[in-house]
């Protein structure tokens, strides 16, 4: 490891791509695994938690790491693809050390941990060597003073901390994609997962919940007070919220729906009224809808909305008023590729595709899959018997329902190796 830095901070390591000797990326770093050895004694770094394809998290021993630089981690190339399972003697640096309350010996300063550094020891093991500590803020808008000290000069990391907050871990999660943040949240111990979920704001927690397994969603929602839970449900997409509410006890579900804003609750109730695993149950009730007098410039302005998924932004649905689902009669759909080829002042109605059959609410998963595959679509409208638009089914909605419930946790056969 001649070119490896002598000291590496964990927060800067998280998210770095991991490469094999051929230069192919095999995953990315999500955390460090250490074993604690008593107060004042440098913990040994056992390895890294890496995220590979399908968001599976595996363990990469430090003995397999050949080089670390500011932008990459390199390995020997052979990785055991068994899913990472934390042992009782192991501690996650990012997941469990950040936000611990510690005291710096000598000065008596107390603060919270916001980063930890590791370095190679003489025996070629990696050990934790430095701790970055931030004092509590002093006054309005003033951050507390920061200190980077030797591991031996800190007390409080070798024991559990009931006062442990989540500020710095939440800051790290807020920098990640929702799916990546969900992966880290999923693997935290239950009490730590609840604390972090409580510290996330409503919108961010909603984004992360949509990427978590059903059991985690229910557990986290049950850990919130009812008003906060209702607020989070309002921030979720209606179809994901409906799926989650279905998994709750009926009395709890009704309480949350009563606390939600009437418009949001109405969308959720409507989706819950359809049979599970049908187009009606999995559709999104808020696609991009325009009237027949809208221009292509109007359409392009709508699909630029960064909150739209790529699948929802791929189609514009032109309907007669009203323009909220259930709309007036659906006149046709406009593909984004077609819109990009037309003058911005042209009416969207002149670029419609009205030759396709629309989906009905009782269409099965197989029906939806066949429809999207037949017409090479990433989304399709769902209409009622009168031709009114009720919503749109996207390919990501379909995949969520086609994959087995535990698809996020599935691993290949034990012992499988990947280069």
UniProtKB/TrEMBL annotation:
SMART domains: MgtE_N. The keyword Lipoprotein does not apply. Residues 352-410 form the CBS domain. GO terms for cellular component: membrane. SUPFAM superfamilies: CBS-domain pair (SSF54631), MgtE N-terminal domain-like (SSF158791), PRC-barrel domain (SSF50346). InterPro entries: CBS_dom, CBS_dom_sf, Mg_transptr_MgtE_intracell_dom, MgtE_N_sf, MgtE_transporter, PRC-brl_dom, PRC_barrel-like_sf, SH3_actinomycetes. Pfam families: CBS, MgtE_N, PRC, SH3_actinomycetes. GO terms for molecular function: magnesium ion transmembrane transporter activity. Keywords: CBS domain. PROSITE patterns: CBS. This is Magnesium transporter. It comes from Nocardioides faecalis.
């Amino acid at each position: 490891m001649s070119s490896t830095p002598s000291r590496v901070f964990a927060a800067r390591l998280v998210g770095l791509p991991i490469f094999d000797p051929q230069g192919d990326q095999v995953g990315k770093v999500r955390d460090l695994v250490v074993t604690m050895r008593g107060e004042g004694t440098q913990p040994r770094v056992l390895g890294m938690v890496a995220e590979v394809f399908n968001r599976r998290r595996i363990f990469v021993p430090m003995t397999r790491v050949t080089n670390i630089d500011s932008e990459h981690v390199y390995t020997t190339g052979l990785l055991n693809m068994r899913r990472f399972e934390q042992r009782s003697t192991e501690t996650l640096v990012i997941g469990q050390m950040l936000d611990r309350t510690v005291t710096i010996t000598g000065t008596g300063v107390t603060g919270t941990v916001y980063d930890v550094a590791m370095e190679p020891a003489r025996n070629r093991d990696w050990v934790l060597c430095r701790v970055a500590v931030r004092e509590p803020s002093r006054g309005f808008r003033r951050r507390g003073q920061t200190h980077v000290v030797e591991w031996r000069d800190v007390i409080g990391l070798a024991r559990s901390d009931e006062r442990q907050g989540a500020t710095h871990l939440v800051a790290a999660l807020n920098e990640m994609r929702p799916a990546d943040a969900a992966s880290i949240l999923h693997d935290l111990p239950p009490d730590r997962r609840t604390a972090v979920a409580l510290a996330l704001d409503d919108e961010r927690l909603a984004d992360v919940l949509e990427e978590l397994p059903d059991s985690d969603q229910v557990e986290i929602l049950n850990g919130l007070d009812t008003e906060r839970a209702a607020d989070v449900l309002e921030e979720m997409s209606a179809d994901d919220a409906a799926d989650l509410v279905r998994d709750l006890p009926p009395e709890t579900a009704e309480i949350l729906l009563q606390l939600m804003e009437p418009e949001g609750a109405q969308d959720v109730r409507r989706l819950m009224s359809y049979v599970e695993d049908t187009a009606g149950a999995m559709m999104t009730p808020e696609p991009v809808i325009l009237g027949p007098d809208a221009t292509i410039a109007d359409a392009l302005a709508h699909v630029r909305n960064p909150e739209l998924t790529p699948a929802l932004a791929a189609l514009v649905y032109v309907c007669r008023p009203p323009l909220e689902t259930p709309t007036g009669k659906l006149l046709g759909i406009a593909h984004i590729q077609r819109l990009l080829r037309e003058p911005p002042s042209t009416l969207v109605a002149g670029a419609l595709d009205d030759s396709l059959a629309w989906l009905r609410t009782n269409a099965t998963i197989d029906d939806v899959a066949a429809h999207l595959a037949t017409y090479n679509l990433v989304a399709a409208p769902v209409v009622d018997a009168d031709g009114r638009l009720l919503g749109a089914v996207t390919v990501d909605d379909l995949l969520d329902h086609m994959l087995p419930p535990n698809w996020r946790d599935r691993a290949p056969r034990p012992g499988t190796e990947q280069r």
